[in-house]
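User: Hi! Is it possible to get a structure for several chains at once, not just one? Here's what I have:
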Amino acid sequence: MRDPRRERFDQAILPHLAAAYNLARWLTRNAHDAEDVVQEAYLRAYQFFDGFHGGDGRAWLLRIVRNTCYTWLEKNRPREPAVAFDETQHGTERNEAGPEAPLLAHEDREMLRRALEELPTEFRETIVLREMEGLSYKEIAAVSGIPVGTVMSRLARARERLQECLAAREREES
Amino acid sequence: MTCEEIRSLLSPYADGELDLVRNLEIERHLSECPACAGAVERTRSLSARLGDPALYRKPPAHLHRRVRVSLRQAGGARGRPVALPWGWLGVAAAAAALVAIVLWGALQSRPISSRDELLEREVVAAHVRSVMLPSHLLDKESSDQHTVKPWFIGKVDVVPEVKDLAPQGFPLSGGRLEYIDDRPAAALVYTRAKHVINVFIWRTAEKDRPPEFLNRQGYHLIRWTDKERMFWVISDLNEKELREFAELLQR
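Assistant: Yes, the chains can be modeled jointly so their relative placement is included. Here is the combined structure:
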């Protein structure tokens, strides 16, 4: 006999598993860990399902996934390795001749993937929620538990870092 | 507005997150300032690259099933959510299993060989789930043992030997990744005259056990342990033919 609560949960929350996995994968940077986190996040989501009052199930779930990721990261990687970002490059030096937006070749995509993985976790989180999930600043603020102004500045800084990182790689390779 | 003032707003401008008034001010500036217009273009181009579907990591096929199994276990024997201790996965699963044992014991009112009977229920549940929807039966559809066996590499602790029993009237349908006893298990799917036979195989530390025949909830089960591998065969196929099938597997 099917539990009606479970039915409602399956309909409202289970379809967002792909979004949950994508976020977990980018935050933990490991497929195996992402699976574990997604399973744990779903258990917590089910536990807290009474607190879901309809509306956007994806954003509600992503908030739980995001929190579960950070708890997991604290427990399993207490000291994040220092980001390989050269501070002396930051600031006045800008590559004015930026890259065009072509169809991405495999190498281009790989470069972007590596640049993303090198971002500090919070910056990466904001980029994923905005560029991959298409959430608004207000929705990102709710998922990440930060003010909208912080979303705005994190996104701007994350994009800056990505562009500088990509430009640096391109210089290396030419 | 100066370029410096504009620069800090270009990111939210590119995202369409600014109010109308500031949008208009910025557009006016952009029409006269190629440097800032270039910066906006670069932001949009980066966004386009980040939106590449290939960067969106897709979950493995079995994750959906794994999550559903885990939710079912958390629901407890009566399907109600149970308060879980805030331990990590292993503790949560153990707690859920403990609750299930206790509740079930109360219903049965006889001493439980808890582990065995819990396993039986899980095996039946896994079998029932797999046959309820055709799309859930197979992760790897193939009647070729040389295709099915390598598919399991990296997914399970012990890659099962996959036998071709079509000559004996038990054709292979394919394989699936299951979750039993809170760990990944290989599921081999055979058929006999429209009856689905699931063979679950996983690594175990338990010692060898000869085959045992069971009747549970309308299904026939045969279990044995051989060289640190646990085997469970389950089907609604009749006892005689299922025993025949199990013997073929054991040779």
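Chain A touches chain B through 49 residues (CB under 8 Å). The mean pLDDT of chain A is 84.

User: Great, thank you!
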